[in-house]
Amino acid sequence: MSDSSYYIPAAAMAIALFFKAPVLLRSWRDPLLRCVCALLALAGLVFLFAAPPTIADVNRITGIPNVSAPLVYSLLSAFSASCLVLIINWRGGPPEVTRRLSRRWIAGYGLVSLAIIVLFVLGDTPVERLRDLDTYYANTPFIREMIVLYLAALTVAGVAMNVMCWRWALQVRGWLRAGLLIIALGFLFNVPYAATKFIAVVARWNGGNLDGLSTYVAPVLASAGAQVSAIGFCLPLACQRIGDTWTTWATYRRLGPLWQELQSATGRGRQDIRIAWWAPAELQVTQRESDIHDGMLALYPYFDTAVRTHAYDAAMAAGSEPAQARAEADAAMVTTALRAKAADPEGRVIRSAAEATAPSTSHEVSRDLVQMSIALRQSPVVAAARERAETRPESDFHERTS
User: Fold this and answer.
1) Does pLDDT of 361 surpass 50?
2) Domain co-membership, 133 together with 73
3) How far apart are the first and last CA of the chain?
């Protein structure tokens, strides 16, 4: 790997963390979000401090030859723990079990990091090595143990991640399953990475020289594994977000017929404050639903429960499910009320309703606005109600005012 290739994934992780930071500040109590941000931060730090130029700078600033080694190894251990904790929290389960497992992994890799630092302090590494410290000091007391410890810790993390991801993947479907399998594949690279390192170190123990495996092959495997795992972590989250946005915009579009139908009830061209067209889809849907409720409120004096009952019975007779029949009945009542309001330009029905005691609405059920909107354009029951309302004598609309 070239020196610059270390900084590219580090910069990518920093950018991702930058965009996650506002969400973290708003929801810092969310353990899953904290795990995601910790993983992004640690992954970026690993690539940053593993770059040979950074290694040289850290050694020079501290004045301690090869002090970057325990720093990078400790960051790798912390990164491994963060991945395991993220999977545990992502999978969910009883909170006490999740916390207990997370603490165990954090404590275990915390002890590994502490041991790495202690072994480095006890060892002796006077000659600075930017790329081949593992093989150069493979026979040095304490440093040898430090190298074996961090490689063993990475191997354990890779195996544990594969076991957890595969077990979970067998229980889920869709993008989450695909993401888990990709994560497992990424952490599977830990095994050949550690294997190439071990082979090169063991070769040194036996007087051989396979340093190229550790110096050139292992870093490529580590980089590939980290990037594949990152794709696995991001894929389900990104696809879920895209899917949620698509569903929200679909809801906005499906509400269109009902929203357009009710514009005449509230007055088209009002000067109300409107949200910007580039506002999030959720806000757009909320605005449209609010407009629909305002329109229905304006139509309330014209609602005819007899029309609704007749339409409901007709929809049930035509084979509609009860929920769909209720939506068709509500849509029929709305379209009839719109025509009743149009036939009452003087507002006599509204004045009559204002003078009377408002009827109780406790019996009303929550209306499915989306299904109502679809029924306005597609239901034969609603079409028949609309046709009857259009041919109904105008005098019938004013009977309730007499």
Assistant:
1) no
2) yes
3) 89
Reported as a single tens digit per residue, the pLDDT across 115-149 is: 999 999 999 999 999 888 999 999 999 999 999 99
SS3 240: helix
pTM over 0.90: no
Same structural domain, 335 and 286: yes
| 190-241 tens-digit pLDDT | 889 989 999 999 999 999 999 899 888 988 888 888 888 878 877 887 787 7
Among 50, 57, 104, residue whose Cα is nearest residue 74: 50
Residues 6+ apart with CB under 8 A from 289: 255, 369
- 215 and 263 co-located in one domain: no
Contacts of 24 by beta carbon, 8 Å cutoff, 6+ apart: 33, 34, 37
Distance of CA 88 to the CA centre of its chain: 16
Rounded to 10 degrees, what is the CA torsion of 72, 76, 82, 85?
-150
- Domain of residue 281, residue span: 255-401
Is residue 178 domain-shared with residue 266, that is, in the same domain?
no
Contact yes or no for 189/225 (Cβ under 8 A): yes
How would you class 205 by CB atoms within 10 Å of its CB: exposed for 0-12, middle for 13-18, buried for 19 or more?
A: exposed
Across 367-373, average pLDDT: 88
Same domain, 212 and 307: no
